[in-house]
Amino acid sequence: MKVVSLNTWSGKLFGPLLKYVSEQGGGTDIFCFQEIFDTPTRGRKTEKYRFDIFSELAESLPSHKGYFAPVQDNFDFDGNVDFPLSQGIAMFVKDSIKIAEIDDVYIFGARNSYKGPGTMPRNLQYAVINQDGTNYMISHFHGLWNLNRKSDSEERLEQSKRIKEILDKLPGKKILCGDFNLSPDTKSLGILEKGLVNLIKENGIFSTRSSLYTKQNKFADYMLVSPEVVVEKFNVPNIEISDHLPMELSFH
Asked: How many Å from the N-terminal Cα to the C-terminal Cα in the chain?
């Protein structure tokens, strides 16, 4: 099986992004996307945002079903908007995959609880699937952001504890991925690593950001797996489809 995780940068590099997704679609069972917008008005965009990127991704993945998990309505990353809009994260699961459960759980705040920088609500989206008689729990999230600092905070520590509690309750071999917005040496990441293997550290990956990201801290995205997951291949290709790099995991 194969999972791809990517912060889409809200589709700012739409052409290269869609080309990559289309190329990966045939061989990828589950896509986990962060920074996703959805609106009923097609074609709405700015220089920075594709506001109907969820629908556009769905069209480029005809063999997958999309599941959108919103956190905030009528608000882009710059402020309120005057048209129907939701932002959040999304999973696209291949039609041939048997899904036992798919849902999202809030790990910080609640829907539409944004009150200013650093308070955007966050959720963990997960799918419990069965493949060849084996249960897998695939999950992802877009971690708390605080003025681009990726250090520990009370809120981030609580976010990690909440995620760990959820993972411990769900069945199957576990994969946790996404844009964590955490530095490698944080206690917040350490909480998530308990009982899991950090494939970024394990494979000596020194950056999960593309050349379009010019700031110093090049870590943000992680892929963690439980020890019973057999990793066939893990790759972080250095391609410009976002200011983040995709993470690709083949496993059984």
From this structure: 6
